[in-house]
Design brief:
The protein has 5 helices and 2 strands, in the order H-E-H-H-H-E-H. The chain has 74 residues and is mainly alpha-helical.
Length: 74
């Protein structure tokens, strides 16, 4: 995640799926590590949130990506 923040500098990262919800403290650990290792200028411009869709976030994200890829083939 720190590389994504530093290189791509996204305004928002949404984390979801089983690991984020099932492992206590995992979200906080990931965010803490990203904060320590990402470039500070990029970190200050990125917001990290937990997906409201819970465990379904990863499936919905994959389906969305597939739909976009297939639409681009036309």
């Amino acid at each position: 995640m720190n590389a994504i923040i530093t290189i791509m500098n996204p305004p928002l990262i949404v984390m979801g799926g089983g690991m984020i919800l099932e492992i206590p403290g995992f979200y906080d650990l990931v965010v803490s590590h990203a904060r320590r290792t990402a470039w500070a200028g990029s970190w200050n411009e990125t917001t990290i949130k937990v997906a409201r869709l819970g465990r379904d976030a990863q499936v919905n994200g994959a389906a969305y990506s597939l739909a976009r890829a297939l639409a681009g083939r036309r």
